[in-house]
Structures are given as C-alpha cells and as structure tokens.
Amino acid sequence: VTVIIATGGVLNGGTNLGTADVVVADGQTLTLTAAQAEAETGGLTITSAGDGDDDGNVVITGLAAATEYDLSNITSENGTVTAVIATGGVLAAGTNLGMAGLVVADGQTLELTAAQADGLTISSSGSGDDDGSVEITGMNATVAYDFSGISSENGTVEAVIATGGVLNAATVLGGVALSVADAQTLTLTAAQANNATITSSGAGDDDADFVITGAVAATEYDFSGITSGAGDITVVFATGGTLNAGTNLGTADVVVADGETLALTAAQADGLSISGDTEGDDDADVVITGATAATAYDFSGIGSGVGTVTVIIATGGVLNGGTNLG
User: Measured between alpha carbons, how far is 159 from 270 in angstroms, rounded to an integer?
Assistant: First the structure.
C-alpha cells in the first residue's frame, strides 16, 4: 500500500498510516512527529517521488536524544530529510539516522560520539535564540573525521580528543572547537592549526600539550585560539625566512629547524621563547631586526640550542635599563 502526499504540511495527529509506504510529491514538505515516523515496527518508509524533480522533503519533529530511533527508511533523492532534537542529552547508541540531518532546538545540547558525528549535518534551529549546542566525545586524533557539516549560530560546537597523537591529515574540523584531555599531546600541522580553537580540558591537571609542525615563516598564521592551562604549546618552523608581519603566535614557544634562519622584528621577538631543534645539529639562527635602543625588550628566552642570535639596533641611543638581551 502506497500513500502519496500530494500536498505537504503537518501530518494530522489522527492519521493512522498503518503499514503504508509514503511518497512525498515533488516540491512538497511533509512534517511529522518522531512518534508518527516510528508508528510501524522498524519505522515508516517515506520517500520522494522517484521521478520528476524527485525533491520531496521530510521534517521529523520532537526527537529526544536518549530515545532510540530508526529513520533509515526515510529518504529523498534530491530533497532533504531533517530530524529536530527537541530534548537534548546523549544520542542513543542504537539510533539510525539514515540520511537525516539534525537540528538542535534552542537551549538544548546534543552529545554524541565522534563516530556518530562523522559526516553528519547538525545545526542550530535557525530561528529564536538559535543556540542549540553540540558536544562530540571520544575523538581519537589519528582517526579521520569530517565535522564540516556541524555548526551552531549562537551555541557551542566542541569535540573532545580523548586520545592524542598526530591529527589525521584527512580530518575536517569545520568550525568545531577542540578540547584535549589531560596528559595527551596533540600534534597537528600549521595549516590545520591556523585559526583553530583548541584548548586543554579546563579541569583536572589541565595539561594537554600541543605541537604545531611544518610552519613556514613567510606564511601568515593565527594560533591565538590555541591555549593550554598547564601544558606546552610549540610551533616548529620547518622553513625559515622573515616571520610574516600578520602572524599571531599566541602563547606558543618557537622551535626553528636545523639549518634554517628565522628573522623577526624586535616587537615580534619580545618575550618569546625561541630555540633550535635539540635533537639535531642545533644550528638554527635567529635574527632580530628593528630594535630601538630606548625601548625595553626581553630576549632572554631566545637562544637555547641555536647557532647564533643577532639583534640589530636600528635606532641608537641609550640602551633601556629594562632590556634583557639574553
């Protein structure tokens, strides 16, 4: 038995579809509750027309995260299937979303594992406070995930890395902020770290470490969103040259690869920790330009394990009593 919904809208609460398959006509949207979608054992079968534009849409409302659902039989070839999480919490392990994208209602937080979140489309409501939030747990740095479809306009979207290591090159974080568990080290490339928000746990020992590799001096980066309460943040410049004027290193320490020379201004170098690669030849050089004698600088953190450190005084005068040349 097949029921064709020629005119979309909200499915009447008194309608009993029995075991009928449902087809949504082109250009129409059928809205029904999760209870109605699950009325038949195994869930209703709802599809788009199968010909023409084949773009009927389905919206399923009233889902509770903790309840198990099977939406695998609800599909649309060229339309959309959307499930609205009205009550947040931990997504039931047995829930099968099929092709449905999720919308998290205002004021609610949806928690799900990295495996469940991989490849999903999840958003806030798009109206009202538009502040539904998403928390992704159990992420392993070495596994590839695609979180590019997960966002919230005014809420938060965070993934917790429980197991550190080298961040998989295929992982797409989108706008997801990362939190790294205590005692874990996350290693990622400068391209992956650029403009990312990555923090330690904010509780317990709060000591996650971050190592950013493959930085190129001439490329502009913003690492200001990477922070750790009690851990270390290190940026490794694999390619020397003049540090880009727009680069924001945040609170990171800098390591310069063997055989490379990093040139940066006195203003950029002030207060930084810059060292060489202690496992290699220890022959990286640092050149600090544009210093003004009358200005106080702290270069005391520059020089461990490097070849030479040179400070160029561009403007002479009396050396400031507070300057530490290291």
Answer: 34
